[in-house]
Structure formats: structure tokens, C-alpha cells
Design goal:
mainly alpha; Fungal-type protein kinase domain-containing protein
């Protein structure tokens, strides 16, 4: 579910539900691509794990103590989008731990950046929001570029 829908304000940004649908699909991709088995805490790789995108996703979206509220989860998702976009503070960014996850980051990073910027712009400006077709075409371009990078 998109962060805006979790905040209970799908139309606050003046954007269509397409934005929310595309963000929701991105979360499915993120969880699917980054869900790997945790290494043993005694493993030499454990320090790398706790600074990884996979660890950040698991501990943020699925905290051991549970999710306190939907607004809390909304803010956590927005923070993850910013971190996964690669535009944030390098100390708050997460590199993928797993080699397969690294491949998916070629799609997750630009898509997270696009969705974060669209959400932020929709909340802070009066600029015209993209049409449904523009949203779909932008994401399609991101997916095409990701697929091209695999070859």
C-alpha cells in the first residue's frame, strides 16, 4: 500500500490513484527482491548484513515489535523510498547484501527516486501533477532501462 493511502489521504496530493497503485507495486517488488534469509549473527558477513538494503527493508517494514500505526508505517515507507533512491545521505543509504538483490537495485533505485519525488512534489507544490499516462510511461521507461542493464 502506498504511503499516502496509509496516511489516509489518497487525494491530498491531488494525484490519481495510479500513483498509489504504482507505489504499491514497487513495495511488492522491493519485498520480493530483497527478502533473503538472514545470515547467522556469528557470521563474518553479519556487519555487512546490518547495513544492507535487505536488513533495512525487513526491520523497517516488519519490525519484531509489530507496526504501531498506519501513519508510522507510512513515514517509514517514505524514509525507505528516500534511502533506496540513492539520493540521500550516504550514511543513511543501504547497499544490497545479496548479489541478486544488487541486480534488482537497478530498477528499485530509479523507481524509488521517481515515486519519492512525485509524492513530495504533490504534497509541497501547486505544479500540475503528471497524468496517468505519464506515470505509466515513466515507470515503463525505468523498467526498460533496468532490463537493458541486465544484458
Amino acid at each position: 500500500m502506498s504511503s499516502a493511502l496509509l496516511r489516509g489521504c489518497p487525494n491530498l496530493r491531488g494525484q490519481s490513484m495510479v500513483h498509489d497503485d504504482l507505489e504499491s507495486f514497487l513495495w511488492v517488488l522491493i519485498v520480493t527482491a530483497l527478502w533473503i534469509e538472514d545470515p547467522s549473527p556469528s557470521s563474518e558477513e553479519y556487519d555487512k548484513w546490518v547495513n544492507s538494503a535487505e536488513w533495512a527493508m525487513k526491520t523497517t517494514l516488519f519490525p519484531v515489535i509489530g507496526i504501531p500505526s498506519t501513519s508510522w508505517l507510512s513515514e517509514q515507507k517514505r524514509a525507505l523510498l528516500f534511502s533506496f533512491s540513492g539520493k540521500g545521505n550516504p550514511y543513511n543509504s543501504f547497499a544490497p547484501y545479496d548479489p541478486v538483490s544488487r541486480l534488482y537495485s537497478r530498477v528499485i533505485e530509479p523507481w524509488s527516486d521517481y515515486m519519492f519525488r512525485r509524492d513530495l512534489e504533490g504534497m509541497t507544490s501547486k505544479n500540475q501533477t503528471p497524468t496517468d499516462e505519464q506515470y505509466y510511461l515513466a515507470i515503463l521507461e525505468i523498467l526498460r532501462n533496468g532490463i537493458k542493464s541486465f544484458s
